[in-house]
Write a structure and sequence with these properties.
7 strands; two-stranded parallel ribbon; about 160 residues; 5-stranded mixed β-sheet; globular
Length: about 160
């Protein structure tokens, strides 16, 4: 089953790639790799929540936002490849995920939040979605987003 069928089975579809808010692009291809910029959990162009995880945003909510941000990262990959959702089938492996969690100073559950992104990538890409990862707590993220996710993927050789 390809990525399109897996997304459909999950009741998901790739969103439109969010326009950059500064001087950068959502994703860049270099050889057989695609590197995404940090992706926020935009839904229809808006953040579903703002604030710190552990103070106003629950860990369970943040898990879902990490899933949404990872879906946005996959959309950025597909967009830079120019092939729509079917382009995701060219991914050999998600090499690295970096998850940033805007955290209340007492919150230490960043890995559980970033598991939302990891779970989504595995559910959509299967074993190719298994990756190395960092989960980092930060004081604040752009637009006061609770999470930000960036990914690096390896593609089939051209």
């Amino acid at each position: 089953m390809g990525a399109a069928e897996k997304l459909a089975a999950l009741g998901l579809e790739l969103p439109v790639v969010a326009a950059p808010v500064a001087v950068y692009v959502p994703a860049v291809r270099s050889g057989d790799y695609v590197y995404t910029a940090g992706q926020l959990p935009f839904v229809a162009g808006a953040l579903p929540a703002t604030g710190k995880v552990g103070a106003g945003v629950s860990p369970d909510e943040a898990f879902g936002y990490a899933q949404t941000a990872a879906l946005n990262a996959l959309a950025a990959v597909a967009d830079v490849l120019g092939g729509g959702v079917d382009a995701l089938d060219r991914i050999v492996r998600v090499v690295k995920v970096v998850g940033f969690v805007a955290s209340d100073p007492s919150f230490t559950g960043q890995p559980a939040v970033v598991n939302g992104a990891s779970r989504l990538l595995h559910d959509v890409l299967g074993e190719a979605g298994v990756h190395a990862r960092s989960a980092v707590g930060v004081a604040v993220l752009p637009l006061d987003s609770p999470v930000e996710i960036e990914i690096v993927v390896e593609l089939e050789p051209a």
